[in-house]
Prior knowledge:
mainly beta
Amino acid sequence: MAWNQRSNAPEPGTVICRLQELEDGKGREFTFSEDGFPFSMFIVRKAELIRAYVNECPHTGIPLNWSPDEFTSEDGSLIICSTHGALFELDDGYCSFGPCTGDHLEQVPLEVDGEEVKIGGSS
Ligand code: FES
């Protein structure tokens, strides 16, 4: 199911955080749970590169992290799944190692507007 068809998925234009709240080489989780099943996504940042993905591993469909905001390899260059160690590219979510090699994380479009990081797409 596409990210924006899931329950509680944020609307385009929703402000997620401020740019300065995203640490270089790290990830951060954001959950939306007004009603029903929560929508969980995370944002990773490496220098100027900022991407958001649905927090769901393509291997089994469970969240990638075991601990809060733990989404990246030690050097911050790849996204890692805590369960079986799959590695994903920051830029496009492509799985380059692990049981789901060749699959992708589902990207959530973002827009950086000054200091604000928002959900992208038309509102
Ligand atoms: S659940 Fe993520 S690699 Fe298996």
